[in-house]
Amino acid sequence: MKTYHNILVTEANKITTITINRPDKLNALNELTLAELKDAIQLVYTNENVSAVIVTGSGEKAFVAGADIPEIAKLNGSNAEAATKFGQDIFFLIENCPKPIIAAVNGYALGGGCELALACHMRVAAENAIFGQPEITLGIIPGYGGTQRLTQLVGKGKAMELMLTADSINATEAFRLGLVNHVVSKELLIEKCTEILNKIASKPSLAVGKIITCINHNFDKAANGYQTESTLFAACTETADFKEGTTAFLEKRKPVFVGK
Ligand code: COA
After folding, report:
1. 96, part of any domain
2. CA dihedral over 225, 112, 106, 155, signed as positive or negative
3. Is the Cβ atom of 83 under 6 angstroms away from ligand 1?
4. DSSP notation for 197-248
């Protein structure tokens, strides 16, 4: 298993767990951490032994408490746009990954941490999770996709309120707003994510990736999601797993999918 400085990557039962690991800085995303996260996600794309990912934070307090503020403080008009694009591109990699990625939110998910959770396909929160986009208090705005993805998940009015006031919300409120899929005790956090991912792992993986693409195209102004749906539906009918799924139904037995 590849080792990094600021993230831990482990693999079990085809699930890769990526743990942001700067607990003394509440797992703040500095440039090195982002670069390592990018590398780990790129490996998920190509590693045939991996079918899903859990992203979480190290320590008791935080998922990720934001982008690294000392690094943010050094940004200016000439380098800031590239810095946001660097983060945005990594979060696009997460969002567009054909393998499901769940954020296991185990504490503060603020600023870039909230944006990291938003880029994942689903979010499961521990009861101590806190979400917020407090960038405005630093004189900036979210820069890793938060203005877009938070709006997609909670709607325009609530997104406006959260980003303009910098208010943070607890796990119960995040669940009520549709920001998280489930809230569980912190002891059950990884177990709940694993349970969801194992359920998905029993499904045909090519169809899994195609559903992720279609849903993402609903939010992509350059895409026609209905056209994507038709095209990818047709592509499914060319797979061995389509033949297996339909045959198994007709033969009244459980399908055995092979991911082809
Ligand atoms: N970037 C860099 N370091 C951070 C950080 C961030 N986003 N968030 C926390 N840290 C560091 C603190 O500076 C502190 O380091 P130090 O011990 O070397 O001084 C350490 O993590 C612990 O944080 P601390 O503030 O002492 O913990 P707390 O429990 O009192 O408060 C928070 C927790 C999350 C409320 C507080 O740390 C905070 O507001 N962080 C910034 C959140 C934010 O604005 N994020 C958006 C950034 S764009």
Report:
1. yes
2. negative
3. no
4. HHHHHTS-HHHHHHHHHHHHHTT-TTS-HHHHHHHHHHHHTTSHHHHHHHHH
Domain count of the fold of the chain: 2
List, by residue number, the catalytic residues: 115, 135
- For 170-209, the pLDDT digits (tens) are 999 999 999 999 999 999 999 999 999 999 999 999 999 9
CA angle 51, 55, 58 (to 5 degrees): 140
Q: What is the distance in A from the centroid of ligand 1 to the CA of 25? A: 6
Identify the domain containing residue 224 by its residue range: 205-250
pTM higher than 0.90: yes
Q: What angle do CA 183, 185, 191 make, to 5 degrees?
A: 85
85 shares a domain with 111 = yes
Distance 168 CA to ligand 1 centre (A): 14
* CA nearest ligand 1 atom 2, residue: 68
**Are 204 and 259 in contact, with CB atoms under 8 Å apart?**
yes
Assigned domain for 260 exists: no
Domain CATH code at residue 152? 3.90.226.10
Model confidence pLDDT, tens digit, residues 245-257: 999 999 999 999 9
